[in-house]
Amino acid sequence: PPPFFFCLFFFPSKTPKPCLGVIPVPSSFGFAHVERLQQTSRILWAYGELDPWATLGLKAAVSNQTALIRIPGGSHCADMEGPNEHDTVAMRTARQQESEVVGKWLAQVVEERPK
To answer: What's the pTM value of the predicted model, to 2 decimals?
Structure first.
């Protein structure tokens, strides 16, 4: 797809037209249709407050079937690395929260399976 395709897809009514070859950055990242996200389940968003994308991200979970974890002092994708001795308390807490959320969802899936 053309490079600007994704902005057109995610921000159909908000996508500005290029002016003098400069394409402005949308004011929100992929969440122009939050009502669609409210119909989803078991999505975990986790990002650090120092992640450049954090300012464009969600500020809260969109439903009780999703989760959002903001990591104070965290950077882009830092929680995706394995735990290590340099993890901050906030990072260790976030990893624990992620584990609990995913564990709860896995237990729900097992419970929902036909017996």
So the answer is: 0.69
